[in-house]
Amino acid sequence: MATHYRLTLAYDGTDFAGWQRQAAQRTVQGELERALSRLSGGVAVSAAGAGRTDAGVHALGQVASFQLPRRWSPDELRRALNGILPADVRAVDAQSVDAAFHARRSAISKLYRYELDMGDVQLPTRRRTAAGVPWALAAGPMRELAAGYLGRHDFAAVASTGSDATTTVREVIRSEVRIEEATLRYEVEADGFLRKMVRSLVGGLIEAGRGKRSAGDLLEVLRDGERRRWPAPAPPQGLTLVLVRYGAAGA
Questions:
Q1: Selected catalytic residue, list 54, 75, 191, 217
Q2: Which is it for the CA torsion 139, 216, 53, 234, positive or negative?
Q3: Contact 146, 186 (CB under 8 A)
C-alpha cells in the first residue's frame, strides 16, 4: 500500500531553472523526482511543491508531497534521499502524512526573505545569495511602502505574465524591512504569491528607498493594478523561500 510523505527541502537555486519540472532544463522538482524514482525501483514518482520558485531563487523550507510504493521511516527516507540528491539540494525533514495532505493546497501561508547588499562593492561570497545595488537606500520610505503592502489587495500590478493563477488577490500578513549594516532584509508572508510577486515588491522598495518614487505614488499604482507603471522586479538571487505554514491537519 502506498504511503504519503511530506518532505522539507533546502536548496541553492543558482544553478536551477526553478522548481518546476521542465524538459531539457535542470530543476529542483526534476532532481527530486529522479531520486524518488530510484528509491522506488524505477517507478515514476510525482512530487508537488508548496511554491514554484523561479530560476535562481533559493529555499530553506520548501515543502514537497508525494507517495511511495513502499513504506520508509522518515529518517530512513531523508538519509536515503540525501545520498542520491545533488549537493545543492538537501532533504532536511521528512514525515509520513495523511493522503489528503498536499504541499501547495494545504498551505495556509508562505514566508519569503529577500536580501540586498547596498554599496559600490559587494563581497564575492555574497553574490549567489544576495542581490546588490550601488546606492544607500533610505529606510523610512521603504518601511512606509512595506506597511502599505499589508492586508488583502489585488496585486495585479506586481504579477508577471505566464501565471495560471485564477485571481490576483492575495492577503499579506507580514511585511517588514530591516537594515543591518549595509544589507536590506525584507520579509513578507502571505496566503499565496503570484509569479515574481516578491521580487516586484522589492523592486518597489528599491525605487522608494532611492527617492525615485514616493511610497504613496507606488501604493496608488498598486491600487490601480497598472503593471507597466510598476518598477522592474529585483534579481532572483536575493530571494529565499524560508517557511511554509500549515494548519493542524497538515502538521
A1: 54
A2: negative
A3: yes
d(CA 168, CA 158): 9
Could you tell me whether strands 58-68 and 239-246 are parallel, antiparallel, or unpaired per DSSP bridges? parallel
Evaluated on CA atoms 244, 205, 225, 227, the torsion sign reads negative
Note if 54 is an active site residue.
yes
Query: Tell me, what amino acid is at 67?
Result: Q
> Residues for the chain: how many in total?
251
Q: Cα–Cα distance between 242 and 200 in angstroms, integer?
A: 18
- Residue 201, C-beta contacts closer than 8 angstroms, at least 6 positions apart: 149, 158, 175, 186, 188
151-189 tens-digit pLDDT: 999 999 999 876 677 899 999 999 999 999 999 999 999
Residue 143 to residue 205: CA distance in whole angstroms = 8
Nearest to 135 by CA among 146, 123, 121, 145: 121
The residue whose grid cell reads 543558482 is 14
Q: What is the pLDDT of residues 223-247, one digit of tens each?
A: 999 899 999 999 999 999 999 999 8
- All domains of the chain, ordered by start, with CATH? 3-105 (3.30.70.580), 112-245 (3.30.70.660)
Cell of 60: 530553506
